[in-house]
Design a protein that fits this description.
Chain lengths: 366, 571
């Protein structure tokens, strides 16, 4: 009964410890506050673990009721970022609290998944079947999209294109998993893809550059392409066994920018090589796989969609981040869940995993 | 249900995609990325050793090295380069424009230091060393440079050093030579470059993304080149060059017992230092000078031997028994060969072989030559080492040329006439030899019949090579022939009317032969080839003056040299 709980906990801990080691290795030679950055990450890890334990014992059905409140809170914070947010690295993504910065977009990701799970698992009044199968185009597509689009728009405007697009992807995937008709989904996708060339003009200059650089990093080796080139060198130079703990020249001599946040995978891979990276990616897969198993054996439609949503959120972030590290996806500001330095991400991921564990536990109570 | 399975498959595919990407980067391209990673953070700072010294036979330094300093900058922060160049220009007193031009010319990549100024003085190097503290991208490297304490002395034996050219590079690439290497050109510097050449050492250091020094990874100490000891005697060389005193020509002094070159002087000469300082105007002047100062005249250009060639006629006549000691020809100032009158330079009356050599009687040798025939003269000239490479170790030796009837038939479609034979007999016509060939021929009469293998390098890196280099080749003449000719050569000096009589009042007995070569344009070339002391020859001397007038003037020059050597106790 407690199997899934422990599995999730152990996999997540292994990844998080690898993350702390990588953060330490990439920052220990820097001066000042940088040196204890790994301590802060460990603190967040501890808080995250507490949250995991608490949330996993907290009946997820309560989220059903708190759904609108959570969604409202997320929107409120996103608006607040607009007004009060701290500008860092050219983007306004953070809210300053007493001694830490909070990134509301991380919270919004989870809030939207809860909201969508609740929305699509509503039951018909007359019988106990799911009502989503009978949804027309308005209730099945347009209305939920509006609910997703509002926070998504706020996030993209921060600007944080990566997180915004992830919301869209999660939305499409969840839509696919509910009983909404396929033709609606395809219509939606076509409507999304058709105006893409038009959206090009709405992208910011740096975003355009990143996309161009993704196609060919060598057009600007010292500018936008620099990170991709250095990241690929870092991963590739690891070879099979890696260069060893604290012996990665790319990350430790600062050739690789953002080596403790978005490009932590490259930092890790340089030191631990193909073998270490293989194990790391396997860990991620095992967690996600565990989420899928939980979803499949849950009878409750809300719990099932929630479990799928959380697993997909994790999978999409892991995929885009690692692909971007390897130069297989354009550079978007997106953390690697559980590994990248950043309190909000760690906290929200552990809370999401806690919800996942609780879904499996509650299932057995019925 | 189906939708879940499809989604599951998609997720699996996505992770496989990641693993394939990882496999590609780590295992397929890992090697390449490892190299790129290293070149990111590893810098090589090269340090060059010193090129080997060149010494004379007594160990005196002819060429050595002195330390000079190069200024390089690390172009890590390209925006800063202009600022740094500006400051450098103020400190060095060089225009910023020049520095920028040098920077542009030498720039390879941001990770490799760029040389912006070379050969700066010690004082300025110290000044820059202090400035380095605030601008760490400046690197000052000491560099040993060729130093010539005697300027142009023995320049043709030594050669010069310069940046390797394309032709040499293609030839020497396999031996570890690289572009921009400094290599020898001409002389010992070229021939023994492989030994003289230093081995580069250097420091490999790790730097961070700003090019800031982190730690030393390794050090290989540079190796200096091997010293090369020459057979030249610095004192004799100085005397020989002094005796030329600005006249075109060459002087060779050689040991007839083993072939060691004791002095080899040529004029016009050059100062090899201009190549070190890269004074382009002076270098261009050297290459464009019509007098060709870079040519080693002793081996690199050939001249008509004139009367010096009569030694060949005399030896051949005696060997082939066309003449003997009692053969006498009458010189009436000229003789008829066919329908043409061939004149002598004087009227000598009846001449035997001794008289003919001593007085350089043309009529005697016209007649001897006609008795021998052109082919025999040609063959004996070659036997005495004329008209073919001596096999000297310095580069760019020319062979000279001895004509023959067959050669004329094949190459000029002309017949050979007796007049040609008469002309060849006195070393005119198409006949050409180098001064070293003349000296080598003379050596075989000084040492009893052996041609030598002349050489200038005695030892390399302390290893004595003279035993290997000494190579005597018997000319296989009868002892009487050698003795007869040698006696004739002695009479050139001792006879009151001998052409070399000017040398008779020296404290050492000299033997030799003068020559006055007629040339199409300008004054005659003057030759004196001889050896001394006559009884126990220790030196072969060859003085050749290009357009230097009659052979007499060469004899006078030889006299000056021998006098000076005598007064310095070098004989």
């Amino acid at each position: 009964m407690r199997n899934s709980f422990f599995r999730i906990l152990i996999f997540a801990l292994i990844i998080a410890i690898a993350g702390v080691l990588s953060i330490y290795s990439s920052t220990y030679q820097k001066e000042g506050v940088w040196q204890d950055i790994y301590m802060r990450q460990m603190l967040w890890l501890a808080i995250g673990l507490v949250c995991f334990f608490v949330i996993s014992g907290f009946n997820y059905r309560k989220l059903w009721d708190a759904n609108y409140f959570i969604y409202g809170t997320a929107l409120f914070f996103l608006f607040l970022v607009f007004v009060l947010g701290i500008v860092r690295l050219g983007a306004q993504r953070w809210l300053k609290f007493a001694w830490f910065n909070f990134q509301p977009s991380e919270f919004a990701k989870l809030a939207i998944i809860i909201f969508l799970a609740r929305y699509f698992s509503a039951k018909s009044v007359d019988d106990t079947s799911l009502s989503s199968g009978k949804f027309g185009i308005f209730r099945g597509l347009i209305l939920p999209f509006i609910f997703v689009a509002v926070p998504m728009f706020l996030i993209i405007e921060q600007p944080d294109l990566g997180s915004g697009l992830i919301l869209l992807l999660v939305f499409v995937c969840l839509l696919y998993l509910t009983s909404v008709r396929l033709k609606y989904i395809f219509t939606f996708l076509v409507l999304l893809i058709l105006p893409l060339p038009f959206f090009w003009h709405f992208l910011r200059d740096y975003q355009k550059q990143r996309l161009l650089v993704f196609l060919n990093p060598n057009i600007d080796p010292l500018g936008a392409g620099y990170t991709i080139i250095q990241s690929r060198i870092a991963i590739g130079s690891g070879g099979f066994f890696g260069r060893g703990w604290l012996s990665g020249s790319q990350s430790q001599l600062y050739f690789l920018p953002e080596s403790h946040t978005d490009f932590i995978f490259a930092t890790f891979s340089e030191q631990w090589g193909f073998l270490g990276s293989l194990l790391l990616i396997s860990m991620y897969y095992l967690i996600i796989h565990q989420g899928f198993i939980i979803a499949q054996r849950t009878q409750d439609a809300f719990g099932r969609l929630l479990a799928y949503g959380i697993s997909l959120l994790l999978a999409i972030q892991v995929f885009i981040n690692i692909a971007m590290n390897m130069g297989l996806a354009p550079v978007v500001g997106l953390p690697l869940p559980l590994m990248s330095y950043g309190g909000s991400s760690v906290l929200i991921t552990f809370i999401a995993l806690g919800v996942l564990a609780n879904i499996d536990r509650t299932r057995n109570v019925f | 249900m189906e939708r879940r399975i499809i989604l599951n498959l998609i997720i699996i595919l996505v992770f496989i995609f990641l693993l394939v990407g990882l496999f590609n980067l780590d295992l397929l391209q890992g090697e390449k990325f490892r190299k790129q990673s290293d070149s990111n953070c590893i810098r090589l700072i090269s340090q060059s050793g010193a090129r080997g010294n060149i010494l004379d036979r007594n160990g005196e330094i002819i060429v050595d090295n002195k330390i000079s300093y190069d200024v390089m900058i690390l172009p890590q922060d390209l925006d800063q380069v202009d600022l740094v160049l500006g400051k450098l220009s103020r400190l060095l007193g060089v225009e910023t424009k020049e520095l920028r031009a040098a920077f542009k010319k030498n720039f390879i990549s941001t990770s490799i230091p760029v040389t912006v100024a070379t050969n700066i003085e010690l004082k300025k190097a110290i000044l820059l060393g202090e400035y380095k503290a605030e601008e760490p991208s400046i690197i000052i490297t000491p560099k040993p440079l060729r130093h010539y304490p005697y300027a142009a002395l023995a320049c043709h034996v030594i050669g010069y050093v310069n940046e390797i050219d394309r032709w040499r590079l293609t030839k020497l690439e396999d031996y570890g030579y690289k572009t921009k290497d400094i290599v020898g050109f001409g002389g010992v510097e070229e021939k023994y470059d492989y030994y003289l050449r230093q081995e580069e050492g250097g420091l490999s250091v790790e730097v961070n993304h700003r090019g800031k020094f982190m730690r030393v990874l390794g050090f290989q100490s540079p190796q200096s080149g091997k010293d090369v000891q020459l057979t030249l005697d610095l004192n004799i060389q100085k005397i020989a060059e002094g005796a030329l005193s600005g006249r075109k020509g060459s002087v060779i002094l050689m040991d007839p017992q083993n072939g060691e070159i004791l002095a080899l002087a040529n004029y016009p000469n050059f100062n090899p230092a201009v190549f070190v300082n890269q004074r382009s105007a002076l270098i261009a002047g050297l290459f464009n000078n019509p007098d060709a100062p870079l040519i080693n005249r002793s081996i690199g250009s050939s001249y008509p031997p004139a009367s010096v060639f009569k030694i060949v006629d005399a030896s051949a006549g005696l060997e082939l028994k066309k003449i003997n000691l009692s053969t006498v020809f009458l010189c009436q100032g000229s003789t008829m060969v066919g329908l043409r009158r061939f004149s002598c330079w004087d009227t000598h009356g009846s001449q035997d072989i001794f008289g003919a050599i001593a007085h350089s009687c043309d009529v005697f040798f016209y007649k001897t030559g006609l008795l021998l025939g052109a082919q025999n003269i040609h063959d004996y000239a070659l036997k005495l080492g004329l008209g073919r490479n001596v096999g000297f170790e310095l580069p760019y030796e020319t062979g000279g040329f001895i004509p023959s009837p067959l050669w004329r038939k094949i190459n000029k479609f002309q017949s050979w006439f007796d007049g040609d034979t008469a002309n060849l007999s006195i070393g005119q016509g198409d006949c050409l030899i180098t001064p070293l060939q003349a000296a080598n021929m003379m050596a075989s009469f000084a040492n009893g019949g052996y041609l030598l293998n002349p050489y200038v390098v005695k030892a390399v890196g302390g290893l004595d090579l003279s035993k290997k280099k000494k190579k005597l080749t018997a000319v296989n003449f009868k002892k009487s022939t050698i003795e007869t000719v040698a006696t004739g050569l002695r009479k050139v000096v001792s006879d009151v009317k001998g052409t070399g009589n000017v040398l008779s009042n020296l404290p050492v007995a000299v033997a030799g032969k003068t020559g006055t070569a007629q040339v199409p344009h300008g004054a005659t070339h003057a030759w004196f080839v001889g050896f001394f002391p006559f009884d126990k020859p220790k030196f072969v001397i060859c003085v050749f003056l290009e357009n230097g007038g009659p052979g007499y003037s060469a004899a006078v020059t030889a006299k000056k040299i021998i006098e000076a050597m005598n007064s310095q106790g070098l004989i």
